[in-house]
Design goal:
Layout (H helix, E strand, L loop, with lengths): L28 H7 L5 E5 L2 E6 L2 E7 L9 E4 L6 H4 L7 E2 L11 E4 L5 H13 L11 H13 L1
Antiparallel strand pairs: 1-2, 2-3, 3-4, 4-6, 5-6
Helix pairs in contact: 1-3
Length: 152
């Protein structure tokens, strides 16, 4: 027998076309556990799972099947912070799939020997409010629009 939803409508049967999709497992779930005190939110991002703290995107988690050099934890940062972050993250590098030699986003590769330690170190920096990690999406576009308006 079909169940009624809170609104009183009949719920679709659980089998067939309306069956719930199986959700993908959360990649590198320990990262979300480490950020739990901040109440992180997740959203899909180009086949990854983006992690937001407040209005900032701080990380993306990626674990695609098969060998991929870009699997791991992606740090949302900018090129100006790379040198300052390198001592904390010796295995950090630009993301190959983005096609540029140097990108603002950096990856802590899942196949690095210190992967979990590095990912947890990044979480500690985020919890401490380190300004080198995290970007407000669309901030550059807003700045460009303001600059263009100011020039008129």
């Amino acid at each position: 027998m079909a169940k009624r939803s809170r609104s009183g409508r009949l719920a679709p049967p659980a089998d067939g076309v309306f069956a719930a999709r199986n959700r993908k497992p959360v990649p590198h779930e320990f990262v979300l556990e480490a950020l739990a005190p901040l109440g992180p939110e997740t959203r899909p991002l180009f086949g990854c799972l983006a992690v937001y703290v407040g209005d900032k995107i701080v990380l993306a988690l990626r674990d695609k099947p098969g060998p991929s050099p870009d699997n791991g934890v992606w740090l949302a940062t900018t090129e100006e912070h790379h040198a300052a972050l390198r001592p904390d993250f010796p295995s950090m590098r630009s993301i190959e799939v983005l096609g540029k030699s140097v990108t603002g986003w950096q990856v802590l590769p899942a196949d690095a020997p210190d992967f979990e330690e590095a990912a947890l170190r990044a979480c500690a920096l985020i919890r401490a409010g380190d300004p080198r990690i995290g970007k407000v999406p669309g901030e550059k576009r807003k700045q460009r629009r303001t600059t263009r308006r100011d020039e008129r």
